[in-house]
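Possible regression after last week's pipeline update?

I re-ran a chain I had predicted before the update to compare outputs. Posting the input and the new output here so someone can diff against the archived version. Not blocking, just want to make sure nothing changed silently.
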Amino acid sequence: MDIVCLDLEGVLVPEIWIAFAHKTGILELERTTRDEPDYDKLMSYRLAILKEHGLGLKEIQETIAEIEPLPGAGEFLDRLRAIAQVIIISDTFSQFAGPLMEKLGYPTIFCNSLEVGEDGAVEGYRMRCEKSKYTTVRALQSIGYGTVACGDSHNDIAMIQASRAGFLFRSTEQIKAEYPDIPAFEEYTELFDAIREVLA
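New output (post-update):
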């Protein structure tokens, strides 16, 4: 039996930090895992910017409340869940994911958590486990599941390469050029057909 493991941001919903960057006008926050492979470095950079501007969880959640799934994402996820078990494996945070999961019909998600002070300031973050995406697919494999993985960023590559099949979706030209052996798709119909063929 196979479990399909999907990234969240960039695959099913817009990038939260980019939306927040546009909302606040702080364009430095547009930097994502597509640009920075080192997640700890990226998050330290983000938290320093939040502190500098006096922004906290409340302001980020207000932006998230306005975010809708990418066009066609809900239908794609519904079709996929009809033929396979699906888990979203994301490096986002539980404090971010809730409203988005509601809009996607409450799929299963494995993600991380923020450390938030009483004043609402984001003081840090707690990763669910080391190398969370890779570790998760390996754990699923250790209990008898095959995995098929899809993502768009540097932090998705390890879980894609560790799975019996994997795909890039709406990734950057640079990442696609770095990993030419990973099939890359731009449309949900193409991705669904590729996954269905693997599962057949």
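Follow-up from reviewer: compared with the archived run. The mean pLDDT is 95. Marking as no regression found.
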